[in-house]
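Predict the assembly for these two chains.
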Amino acid sequence: MTAILRAGRRPAVRSGPIDEAFATLARRPEVISFAVGAPDPALLPVDTVAALAAEVLTEYGSTALQYGVTRGFPPLLEQARKLLSGRGIDCPVDRLHIATGGSGALHNLCMALLEPGAVVLVEAPTYGPAVKVFRSHGAQVREVGSDAEGMLPRALDAALADPDIAFVYLLPTFQNPTGRTMSADRRAAIADIVVRHGVLVVEDDVYTDLRYRGTPVPAFWSFAPDHTVYITSLSKTLAPALRIGIEVLPGELVDSVLALKQGIDMQTSAFAQAIAARFLAGPAAADHIDLLTKSYAAKLGTMTAALARHFPGEYRWTEPEGGMFLWLEGPTGLNTDALLGPALESGVAFLPGSAFFVEGAPNSAMRLSFAGAPVDRIDHGIELLARVCGA
Amino acid sequence: MTAILRAGRRPAVRSGPIDEAFATLARRPEVISFAVGAPDPALLPVDTVAALAAEVLTEYGSTALQYGVTRGFPPLLEQARKLLSGRGIDCPVDRLHIATGGSGALHNLCMALLEPGAVVLVEAPTYGPAVKVFRSHGAQVREVGSDAEGMLPRALDAALADPDIAFVYLLPTFQNPTGRTMSADRRAAIADIVVRHGVLVVEDDVYTDLRYRGTPVPAFWSFAPDHTVYITSLSKTLAPALRIGIEVLPGELVDSVLALKQGIDMQTSAFAQAIAARFLAGPAAADHIDLLTKSYAAKLGTMTAALARHFPGEYRWTEPEGGMFLWLEGPTGLNTDALLGPALESGVAFLPGSAFFVEGAPNSAMRLSFAGAPVDRIDHGIELLARVCGA
């Protein structure tokens, strides 16, 4: 049977622990899940989307169901421009592209930039599924030393000596998996280096509207606008199933990204884009983000209090100012890969730290999502987790 | 500025005449368009989709807005299985995948199968945008001699001597661009050859429900089920903007296609999939296809009558039994690339034959879509076209 696969196959890209966690959780809804970075289902705006869907079909009629423009549905492009301007990203609509989710934006960009042999630099730890995406395009992925603020400028400078670097992938704000935010000074230092080396940064910024305390830091884009592709999405603040991503591109990348988009999925759903445009244009977006930030802030507070209560001193965790995740590090020798089975057995789920490093070796860390689980189950979930850890 | 693009870029993939036609038509709605393969906007089921959207949000609640299963939304997988069974394609759900449109299915498959240097064999003429997709993955595309029934068995047999053939791309039913349908005998002959060579066929079958006369021919899949990837979509029979494609995979391809899907756009919109599932489960689908086939059959009849009236004997056209397109061939020496500008000027649009051949050289043919234009403008459009051709 394998005879039918005559051409070389892509480097094997297999399902990882995130997919397995989703599968297990789908079978066992009683498990308290700190595993996945999905919005709290109780907060998904079902009635709002129902109203918006009816409104856009009345307003736009068949245009909302037809093939559309590759770049994006014009009313959403305009709303995206305003949304980005509110984040200090001022750019014309002809530099924007509406993608099929943030993941669709990243994949489309990889189609334009990566060839076998190209190298992508990432933080350590970084968002594991992005590493799989880069590898699926034949790229090598290399970690650059990082601290509590993200990538280290000197380490990046040294790594950029390699001429095969295609881009540097950063999650500067409420990072997945650590929840940490890169300071403005660090952003400026990293920007200086990438501009000096003439290399591109891909800024993955999908949690930025979920800030619970502290002062917003300008997007990395604003420190190096000609050297940055900025990606955001509405999956965390509206609904994952609308699959709406927004991408800000340097001028020289626009044509190739849009030409490739036609071959990837022609265009992002005009229906979903019309719903998203109406959501952003009205008061619904601000109201909904207010609801999310209040709820998730309370969950984060509950989780850090529970960690302090149930975990002893040799455990450390990040205290993020926003987003969906914190990063728990246990004592040296703890193997969180080995703890995942027993944890699921006892009724709690997390993702082991290995999922967020390029080599994927077992380590003593884990990612905990505080956004998805009901607030009144978080303390018990952390208690179960502490028991499994032997803490 | 190009300094930021340090890695090798993909072979240049540029917008083609189809994209340009869309752009021109968007600016000039008064043009009678035979250019694009989009459903008649007057027939897009706006009220039906509005009702279905409201129903699925009531029935599934937040599940319709959340992240979902990579393979597809389970109720749609089940409806897809039934739809395919009605086409003689009996396969278990674990061989199916719900893609982001038919184009998403093809792209996802290319991610799994194509490497630079791989070769894809196509009919001549073939669907031009697919050629661009194959090239965007680094493949070479080669035409195989074809006649009024499609690819020629002997020519295919000879072409398959090359060990670098990744797959053979076929549009057996109501082909885009010619409208012709491959007979059952030809399908059997082609199937014998691909099975003997142990090579994969990709069957692109998105028009099959739009049959206006004649007897259905079994899908190519049923002649070589272990050697065929079957792709269909709901873009022509429900709505393009839902971006729903359905892919039937040989068992050995399922894991890699689904693992790559996670990196392409995570999963196809659960909201769109829920709407599609409900559409297929109820009477709406059959009713809507009945409406479409009646309307498009009348348009096809109007167009062929107009061609007979306005074009002289040295012009030939196909008489398709279904789909959206017919293929008009003029006398030797006619250059349809050169006629496109004057045609748009005079108020009618078509796509030149060059868009459907690998080399893209100007030729004497053109693709005419009869589905999109209002029926009462078709005769006048063909009359304008005849004048532009000097016919």
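The longest strand of chain B covers residues 165-170. Chain B touches chain A through 95 residues (CB under 8 Å).
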